[in-house]
Amino acid sequence: MKPIISTDYNVCFNVDAYTSLNTYLQQHTYSKIFIVVDTNTHVCCLPNFMGAISGEYDFEIIEIENGEIYKNIETCTAVWSAISELGGDRKSLLINLGGGVVTDLGGFVAATYMRGIDFINVPTTLLSMVDASVGGKTGVDLGSLKNQVGVFCTPKMVLIITDFLNTLPSNEMRSGMAEMLKHGLIADENYWNKFKNLGNLTLDDLNQLIYDSVIIKNNVVLSDLKEQNLRKILNFGHTLGHAVESYFLNHQDRTALLHGEAIAIGMILAAHLSYQKLNFPLKKVAEIKEVILNYFAAIDISDVELEQIILLMKHDKKNAYGNVNFVLLKSIGDPVTDVVVTNEMIIEALHFYKK
What we know:
Dehydroquinate synthase-like, alpha domain, Rossmann fold, cobalt, 4-stranded parallel sheet, 3-stranded mixed sheet, 2 domains, alpha/beta, 11 strands, metal-binding, 14 helices
């Protein structure tokens, strides 16, 4: 697969990813190379990754805890401190080997340590491959508020090595599938249609779907890096989805949802809101619900819980001038940004989801 050219870096795949990394390390002299891993990727991914690197380098491994609850400033402080104590300077390189928590947090650490050091992202989950791989977004959560603190900062390269997917449990694979479904809904109905029947999916099919998904997101990012206009379409399903994710993460009586599980709920609700606001065909809403629920089990959310979720939604960073802004669909592949909806519409959408 040919590298995908993004803003000022390449997204490289599989064998070419390792070749590109080795060439890059040979051509650049870094004082130290730090690799950020979590407790899972340290065991499951780091040995194979290190084994594919040719040459002698001064590597330092920094491990963080696994999970969204550790995507915070406290973890950043621990990583900044570790880099400093291990002699990191402005000529250091940070390699982030992990899922979206590692790449988002590691990118933010690199962007801010000594006002910025180089970094490379190696996403190891399906979600991070198709979502966090392009766009230059880095950041961490602020309490229960998702990605509330961060900066735009691009890596030197992104390496997508799909063999790492063999280490993932099935729920993590489904979580990544949500973002791929989203890419089809906002950009390409033919791509969306491929997800209606994946019963005979092969590894080659998955590689191509990942590649196509990255191309869809990259095309959007190239036209609007700082999310001033078109890039907002990538937030389809996220306005409510992030709020659902935050609510479940911070209520001990509820099992925390993976990002994709929450976004799946958000997309079904957004599809029904599209019907209410933009006359999106109800038949298509039902199709979207059916396809998504083929991948994700329905989650029970009460009206009382929804009230709390709506309050969280008002903190979403995509809002402006006091309005909660949604991305909705006129048709599949034809999204509309900055649509304001009422709480009553959201409640009606929830009742449709729960039917």
